[in-house]
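Hi, here's the filled form for the chain we discussed.

Project: internal
Contact: R.S.
Residues: 153
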Amino acid sequence: MTFNRWSMTRMAILMAGVTLLAGVGCQSLPQGVSQDAVMVGLADSGKLVRLEPGQQLVVELDSNPVTGFQWEINQGVDQNVLLPDGSRFSRSSDQKRMQEEVGSQFLRFRGQQPGRTTLELVYVQPQVGTLGDSPRYRIEVIVSPRPSENNAG
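And the returned structure, exactly as it came back:
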């Protein structure tokens, strides 16, 4: 089998694309995030999220801590169902290189016992508090055991 210049160029482009896609698929998780975590973001606001007891939920939202704003729990979440597990701000390597102040805030939660609760977050300056036009994020969370655990008998 012989390769001409055209087929070698196509092969190089194909290999570069595969390498790029492999790199995207292997992005490292932020510190403190487990491999089986359920990751949600702004596009998931208003949706229903299902977790197993002990499973981690991570909400990733844009944030700019330089302005003093951060995402916080707005209403009491039922901590018997969903327990807050910390928050961390992170910027991608591109954001750091471009010296951007905006990054991502990762809010971690852990499913507890079976049940349902509403998680509502609000973007606030803690010293000012929530304003009427403060951006909000809301999801419904159901924690339930795996079906195989329900049928154990």
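Let me know if anything looks off before we file it.
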